[in-house]
From TrEMBL:
Organism taxonomic ancestry: Eukaryota, Fungi, Dikarya, Ascomycota, Pezizomycotina
Localisation: Secreted
Gene Ontology BP term (one): carbohydrate metabolic process
Entry protein name: Alpha-galactosidase
Main location: secreted
């Protein structure tokens, strides 16, 4: 099951994403999705309430804009027999998706919706394979701004859709490698390109962001930029530290595919959920932000404590994530705790990145289970030149002054320090 959420994009060749008419998808999407908070139990009231909370908490003013309906929004028994459209569940969405969209748009926000590149969604509702044109047309008419396209039961027996086994059964979602390992020719790619093409065909009516939720299958980082605005790099996240570090480790090794219009998606945020400590929440958000991930909140905002809300509202991390001039993320600049190159419990701990705002970013993580010292040595950081630098703490906003050679911090287990380096001194 899934958490897939939304977005779209388009393109011409597999290397370059189609640049949309109004630059939709140029930066990582910021928003909220219903799955991690409500699962299948979604309805118009919760969606509109989430939009209202994004507005009233100040998250909207910071750039959060997509409000995404995940799985379970439609009539489960089937499509409309005449129009072949998916039918919004009249009990869950009494105003229709169009009526819900109107309420979201009235806040100045955007509405996202969920489908799947298969015969049914993860929760067993009608999905889009074979109906891409009909669905894209409906979504555009309803006022939908973003699609989160899952991958489940990805074939139609006895049909010619890419991926059906010769005996009519459904294949494993993990396609076999295509000839020459050219994953851009895989059946997974073909399934998603069908929706991409349908969305491009309606973009004069409505530009719809395209998020792929293919769980990192089929080497998506090698072709995702030709198909969508973002693509999942892994299976689903959950609100455990082990899962967060495993996904962070994976994504940290695949960041070359991140740039304007096309972003790796390490899945939605769990900030506010489960048993994470405040340090773990903070590290999760900071790592996702500096990897230029879509930042899709997945919690009930009406009960989120201010301690957690303030994490989601860190203006410096949002600014780094949304830099209008630099599309590349931060990168690890040296080994982490275990000194390895691949360790799901110990993702890279030393990170740096450039901004167009006159400052560079440095992040230090303590992935150990006990408190530990982490030291930023200026001469090791590729962006920095010079012996002394002006440093600010991103969490507290505190000016740490002019620091010579290196800066050490004592970090609690699983905590993170983030610094703005604002110049030499
Ligand atoms: C993805 O495509 C866009 C638009 O063509 C381009 O600006 C960007 O650099 C591409 N990303 C990568 C990683 O090449
Ligand atoms: C919040 O919503 C109101 C409409 O209800 C809108 O006028 C306002 O601009 C929104 N706030 C922000 C920060 O966009
Ligand atoms: C479509 O038609 C079938 C057969 O008449 C019927 O059982 C089904 O309920 C109809 N579906 C919808 C969504 O109206
Ligand atoms: C949504 O569509 C329905 C059916 O076409 C229509 O009756 C209703 O007025 C629409 N609602 C809005 C808010 O446009
Ligand atoms: C893709 O699906 C087709 C059937 O539609 C099948 O013949 C082909 O082997 C599949 N290709 C790969 C690489 O799995
Ligand atoms: C989190 O995900 C991992 C990997 O899929 C799984 O092994 C683990 O059981 C999950 N934990 C929870 C609490 O869902
Ligand atoms: C949180 O802790 C409780 C009690 O130990 C446990 O039942 C629950 O599964 C945990 N939740 C997660 C997401 O790990
Ligand atoms: C990491 O490498 C350093 C220097 O080579 C070494 O002193 C340290 O013990 C290593 N740490 C771990 C956890 O392997
Ligand atoms: C840290 O704790 C987790 C479980 O809480 C455990 O799986 C892991 O092995 C521990 N790591 C170290 C290095 O002790
Ligand atoms: C993180 O930690 C708290 C526990 O203090 C947990 O309840 C919360 O949901 C998690 N999220 C954030 C952002 O703190």
């Amino acid at each position: 099951m899934l958490s897939c959420t939304a977005t779209v994009a388009l393109l011409l060749t597999s290397a370059n994403a189609l640049v949309r008419p109004d630059e939709v998808g140029r930066l990582p999407a910021l928003g909220w999705n219903s799955w991690n908070a409500y699962g299948c139990d979604v309805d118009e009231t919760k969606i509109v309430e989430a939009a209202s909370n994004i507005n009233s908490t100040g998250l909207q003013a910071l750039g959060y804009e997509y409000v995404n309906i995940d799985d379970c929004w439609s009539v489960q028994s089937g499509r409309d027999n005449v129009t072949h459209r998916i039918i919004p569940d009249p009990e869950k969405f009494p105003s229709g998706i169009n009526g819900t969209a109107k309420q979201i748009h009235d806040f100045g926000l955007k509405l996202g919706i969920y489908s799947s590149a298969g015969t049914e969604t993860c929760a067993g509702y009608p999905a889009s394979i074979g109906y891409e044109d009909i669905d894209a047309q409906a979504f555009a008419e309803w006022g939908v701004d973003s699609i989160w396209d899952d991958e489940y039961n990805a074939c139609v027996p006895d049909s010619d859709f890419p991926g059906v086994n010769p005996d009519g059964t459904c294949p494993d979602l993990e396609d076999p490698a295509p000839p020459g390992y050219d994953w851009a020719t895989s059946n997974t790619t073909k399934r998603y390109n069908r929706m991409r093409d349908a969305l491009v065909a309606v973009q004069d009516t409505r530009v719809i962001l395209f998020s792929l939720c293919e769980w990192g299958n089929a080497d998506v980082v090698s072709w995702g930029n030709g198909t969508g605005n973002s693509w999942r790099v892994s299976g689903d996240i959950n609100a455990t530290w082990d899962r967060i570090t495993a996904i962070a480790n994976l994504n940290a090794h695949e960041l070359d595919s991140v740039d304007f219009f096309g972003f790796n998606d390490p899945d939605m945020l769990e900030v506010g959920n489960g048993n994470l400590t405040i340090e773990e929440n903070r590290s999760h958000y900071a790592l996702w932000a500096i990897m230029k991930s879509p930042l899709i909140i997945g919690t009930d905002l009406s009960t989120l404590p201010d301690s957690h809300l303030s994490i989601l509202k860190n203006a410096d991390l949002i600014a780094f994530n949304q830099d209008p001039v630099i599309g590349k993320p931060a990168f690890p600049y040296k080994d982490g705790y275990a000194n390895g190159t691949w360790n799901p419990q110990h993702p890279p701990e030393y990170w740096s990145g450039s901004t167009s705002y006159g400052w560079d970013l440095v992040l230090l993580l303590n992935s150990q289970n006990v408190s530990a010292t982490r030291t930023a040595v200026w001469s090791e950081i590729p962006q920095l030149h010079g012996k002394a630098h002006k440093v600010e703490d991103v969490w507290t906003g505190k000016d740490l002054g002019c620091i010579k050679d290196e800066y050490s911090v004592e970090l609690q287990a699983h905590d993170v320090a983030v610094f703005k380096i604002t110049g030499t001194c």
